[in-house]
């Protein structure tokens, strides 16, 4: 009997806070912030509520961790990946235009982003996170345009248009026939 109990404990999943946050982001993408509840998360992860409280003081602490992780994923990691893959500002902007269609993870990222933006309409911490990410992204895009020789005011305008187009691309279903990335790049003056 004791061996069976030990074997069951040995096979029980060991979860860290990151696993809870990742599962919470999935629930957020599927049902919004109201769907992010401790019991459904524990059930999804195959653990008890006690595991949650080992890592988080309360649901608000989980929400804070979710926003922190989203900020990392939404700008810093993507920016680093683009910076490492593209040498010129124009190449970086072209890679940015491809982000909404870059991988199967793009759909999940878009769903999480939309859910966080909806959450931000009624929560000050989420609104602050969204404002921060918007500022980081717009500043980065404007910097790239400036590095291409575009005057600062025009670089900011192009950055905003690029960002608005990226948001639209993430949520509008496109096919090869409706993909306008090349035309958009030409309109914004992104040339290799």
Descriptive labels:
single chain, 192 residues, mainly alpha, Tetracycline Repressor, domain 2, 75% helix
Explain this structure to me?
There is one protein chain. With 192 residues, the chain is mainly alpha-helical. It has helices at residues 2-11, 17-31, 38-45, 49-55, 59-85, 89-98, 105-120, 124-147, 152-171, 181-187. It has one domain: Tetracycline Repressor, domain 2 (Orthogonal Bundle). It is built from 10 helices and no strands. The protein is elongated, with a radius of gyration of 20 Å. 22% of the residues are buried.
Describe the structure in brief:
This protein has 192 residues and is an all-alpha fold. The chain has helices at 2-11, 17-31, 38-45, 49-55, 59-85, 89-98, 105-120, 124-147, 152-171, 181-187.
CATH architecture: Orthogonal Bundle
Helix/sheet category:
mainly alpha
- Extract low-pLDDT stretches: 4-12
Q: Could you please say which CATH topology applies here?
A: Tetracycline Repressor, domain 2
Fourth-level CATH superfamily:
Tetracycline Repressor, domain 2
Helices and strands in order:
Elements (H helix, E strand, L loop, with lengths): L1 H10 L5 H15 L6 H8 L3 H7 L3 H27 L3 H10 L6 H16 L3 H24 L4 H20 L9 H7 L5
Helix pairs in contact: 2-3, 2-5, 2-7, 5-8, 6-8, 7-8, 8-9
């Amino acid at each position: 009997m004791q061996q069976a109990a030990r074997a069951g404990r040995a096979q029980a999943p060991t979860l860290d806070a990151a696993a809870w946050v990742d599962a919470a982001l999935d629930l957020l993408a599927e049902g919004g912030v109201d769907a992010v509840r401790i019991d459904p998360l524990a059930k999804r992860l195959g653990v008890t509520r006690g595991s949650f409280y080992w890592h988080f003081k309360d649901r608000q602490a989980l929400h804070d961790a979710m926003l922190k992780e989203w900020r990392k994923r939404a700008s810093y990691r993507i920016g680093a990946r683009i910076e490492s893959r593209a040498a010129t500002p124009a190449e970086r902007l072209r890679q940015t235009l491809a982000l909404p269609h870059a991988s199967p993870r793009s759909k999940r990222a878009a769903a999480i982003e939309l859910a966080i933006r909806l959450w931000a309409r009624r929560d000050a911490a989420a609104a602050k996170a969204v404002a921060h990410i918007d500022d980081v992204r717009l500043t980065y895009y404007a910097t790239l345009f400036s590095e291409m020789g575009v005057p600062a005011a025009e670089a900011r305008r192009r950055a905003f248009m690029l960002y608005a187009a990226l948001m639209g691309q993430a949520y509008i279903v496109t096919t090869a026939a409706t993909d306008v990335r090349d035309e958009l790049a030409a309109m914004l003056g992104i040339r290799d």
